[in-house]
Amino acid sequence: MRRLWLVVLLTVLFVTPQPAQAAPVQWDQPGPFAVVSEALDATHTVFRPADLGDGKHPVIVWGNGTGAVPAVYAGLLRHLASYGFVVAAANTVNSGTGREMLDGARTLVAENARPGSRYFGRIDTAHIGATGHSQGGGGAIAAGADPLVTTTVPIEPGPLGSVEALHGPVLFLGGQLDIIVPPALLVIPRYYAASHVPAVYGELAGATHFTPAGDGGGFRGAITAWFRFWLAGDEQARGVFFGPGCALCADPAWSKVLRNARALDV
């Protein structure tokens, strides 16, 4: 009888089909939303899901590098919008103050409350992120001091904005071969200055200062996952940065990854 029960138990354990594990999300691949881009107002271009549906969409405000316009980064901004974000890009070649970026957020907040607007009731005003490249990365830090902004991703940031004024989690991104904004001199020290908030530093192997142009290159997946976790509460993105299994930490595409004490507690 014992032998019979052992056979039954082994059959249950090894023959009964087990539920398939969901494949991890490839954050650098396009998201589920079709995307359109259009003028938000006279000074901002918006990249958004073509169908805003019935739910609310988190916002990302974008700052260009010096002399650049949103079209230079259109691939990256469309990619973010394909994951359900409404992305407001400031139409300025000088975004270091963060003011133009914040104006885009305020416009969307106002449109969310305006009957008749396509954004009426469709904007998640409690979840707004700021990101940008080079001068726009400094502008993202400056914008991140505003209560509207809940998280920040400075990409190879210029020296503008006060890290000490940030009040939400921050992902600093540097390029290993960036000679315009050398990580060791201009990015990593700012990461260390963010000890009061959860902060992560990622340095992309082989990346130059111009890698983020176009579709964001190797930065694209990390930016997307960070915003999906912090702005959309997507638990599938948590393990990219946090916990003992930190995927970014083990990915050879990243030459250096640092996480401060507050990030280790997430």
Kindly summarize this structure in a few lines.
The protein is an alpha/beta fold.
What number of structural domains do the residues give?
Answer: 1
Percent helix range: 25-40%
Q: List the strand order in the largest sheet.
A: 1-2-4-3-5-6-7-8-9
Q: Mean pLDDT, as a whole number?
A: 93
- Write down the CATH topology: Rossmann fold
Low-confidence stretches: 4-21
Radius of gyration: 21 Å
Assigned CATH class: Alpha Beta
Please identify, by name, the CATH architecture: 3-Layer(aba) Sandwich
Cα(first) to Cα(last) distance is 51 Å
CATH homology superfamily: Alpha/Beta hydrolase fold, catalytic domain
Kindly estimate the percentage of residues that lie in beta strands according to DSSP: 15-25%
- Counted by DSSP, the helix tally is 9
Signal peptide: 1-22
Domain PET hydrolase/cutinase-like: 30-236
GO molecular function: hydrolase activity
Keywords: Hydrolase, Signal
